[in-house]
Amino acid sequence: MAQTLEQRRRNAKFAKDQEARMGKSDGQIKKRTKETPKSPIAPIWIVLLGFVVFGGLLFEALSRMFF
């Protein structure tokens, strides 16, 4: 079965990375660091949700105390 274009690209990239590593010790090879995963919800939506939930509780408590 023939390789797809995407497979050829990835194989070429892998071969290039392996050639760059040849003859180097582990200390000389740049370690890949994983980025910290991002939250699936934007911070603005978290703030908005907090305002709706806790603001609603605050307004309800104030209305029960003064009315």
TrEMBL record:
Chief localisation class: membrane
Residues annotated as transmembrane: 40-59
Membrane topology: Single-pass membrane protein
Coiled-coil stretches: none
Name of the protein: Stress-associated endoplasmic reticulum protein
Protein's cellular compartments: Membrane; Endoplasmic reticulum membrane
Keywords per UniProt: Endoplasmic reticulum, Membrane, Transmembrane, Transmembrane helix
Origin species: Metarhizium rileyi (strain RCEF 4871) (Nomuraea rileyi)
